[in-house]
Write a structure and sequence with these properties.
With about 425 residues, this protein is mainly alpha-helical. Helix content is about 70%, strand content about 5%.
């Protein structure tokens, strides 16, 4: 037998050359044509090869093409070329397979992914495709076609259901569109009515404005015809205001008379009490002033840092506590005394603390730290500044701080105890 006749399908499978369409088994042609070529493309290809119009039905076209694939001819060569073009990418992927097992693995992956058309063509024509693999691929494709048919039937059922649903929704949409058209017509009618009403209202407004202008013109003419009308109106308003003011003043005078009567009665009662207590008060005042003068002389003569100073201060307090009365409102307040004689500090402290107040003293920088003066001023509720016993610098610092912070400050020229008491009486700590 010559070499030409020895090169059959089995010999071609053992070479590196891919098989051609007409070299495949006849059992492969039917599924290959049915899966690899869509009917429209197949009819177009047949018409192009035959050079005429294809009048046969789809089944007859399919059977005719399958028959022609068994031999090499114009139709089989055209179909070979079309399949090569259509599935060039899949052929490139299968080209990496070196044996039948690798080709089978690529085929199984394609079946799993549902992309079998190109894989079926690339696997059958591969140089390493064995007869066993060819048969297995035909079996797998046969089952895939059955499953595809079942899926197609299910899809057709769903398609008809979708068509029915689409028809129902189309009917609903038509009803909604009719309803919307009716509502739009009603809305347009209402808008036209509102526009008409608006025009009527505008016309009425223009008429009222014209009437108001006419009335204002008539009023101006009437006022011009009556001389002194504006002056009379102003006088009438002024008279009404004067009457109202007079009534208010009369009420105020009545209230003041009542208060005056009550004040006169209270003053008469106080005058009677004062007349009864005048002799005793004069005697007590004379004795108190004498005792106060004696205490001041004793405090001035006492040494500043001697042990007897405390006893003298205590004695002075004992003498003056009956004649010098501290204001009760000083209770629980902090009183700072700046300056003053050192011998009087104990007496100041005793008198102020006796009414429940807190006493603090700063000598103005003589012995105490001058830098602590502002801290002492900030902590005090009331400041007593002995102007005759501090330096000019301390005086101005106290005055500036109290003015800047609003702190209540009483300035005393005389460092005596009675001056301190009068200063505390003048202080307003309410």
């Amino acid at each position: 037998m010559c070499d030409k006749h020895q090169a059959g399908p089995e010999a071609a499978a053992r070479t590196s050359r891919r098989r051609r369409l007409w070299e495949l088994g006849h059992a492969c042609h039917c599924p290959l044509v049915g899966v690899g070529m869509p009917l429209a493309a197949l009819r177009k290809l047949v018409g192009k090869v035959t050079g005429g119009t294809v009048v046969a039905d789809d089944y007859e076209v399919h059977v005719g093409v399958v028959t022609e694939c068994g031999a090499r001819n114009r139709l089989s060569e055209a179909l070979q070329k079309e399949l090569e073009r259509r599935y060039a990418g899949v052929l490139l992927r299968f080209k990496s397979a070196k044996d039948a097992e690798a080709v089978a693995a690529l085929w199984r992956a394609a079946v799993a992914n549902g992309d079998v058309a190109g894989a079926f063509w690339a696997g059958l024509t591969h140089a390493r495709c064995s007869p066993e693999l060819e048969e297995q691929m035909c079996r797998d494709l046969h089952m895939v076609q059955h499953q595809a048919g079942a899926c197609a039937r299910a899809d057709i059922t769903r398609f008809h259901a979708v068509l029915e649903e689409n028809s129902r929704m189309a009917r609903d949409l038509a009803r909604l569109q009719q309803r919307n058209a009716a509502m739009q017509l009603e809305r347009n009618t209402e808008m036209e009515q509102h526009a008409s009403q608006l025009m009527q209202l505008r016309a009425q407004l223009v008429g009222r404005d014209s009437l108001a202008d006419s009335l204002r013109h008539e009023l101006a003419q009437l006022r011009a015809s009556i001389p002194g009308l504006e002056t009379r109106d102003r006088l009438a308003q002024r008279l009404s205001q004067v009457d109202e003011r007079e009534r208010a003043l009369r009420n105020q005078v009545a209230e003041l008379k009542q208060e005056l009567a009550r004040a006169q009665a209270a003053l008469a009662a106080q005058a009677a009490q004062a007349a009864q207590a005048a002799p005793a008060l004069q005697a007590g005042q004379a004795a108190g002033l004498a005792a106060l003068h004696a205490a001041q002389q004793a405090a001035q003569q006492a040494p500043q840092h001697s042990t007897g100073g405390g006893a003298a201060g205590a004695g002075a307090v004992g003498v003056t506590e009956h004649v010098v009365r501290m204001p009760e409102r000083l209770a629980e307040r902090s009183i700072l005394c700046v300056g003053g004689r050192t011998g009087n500090v104990a007496t100041y402290r005793a008198l102020i603390e006796r009414v429940g107040a807190q006493f603090a003293h700063h000598d103005g920088g003589l012995e105490d730290n001058a830098n602590k003066l502002e801290a002492s001023l900030a902590a005090a509720d009331l400041v007593i500044c002995q102007t005759g016993c501090i330096s000019h610098s301390a005086y101005w610092r106290v005055k500036d701080f109290c003015k800047r912070t609003g702190k209540r400050c009483v300035f005393i020229d005389n460092p005596s105890i009675s001056s301190l008491a009068r200063g505390l009486e003048q202080a307003d700590l309410a």
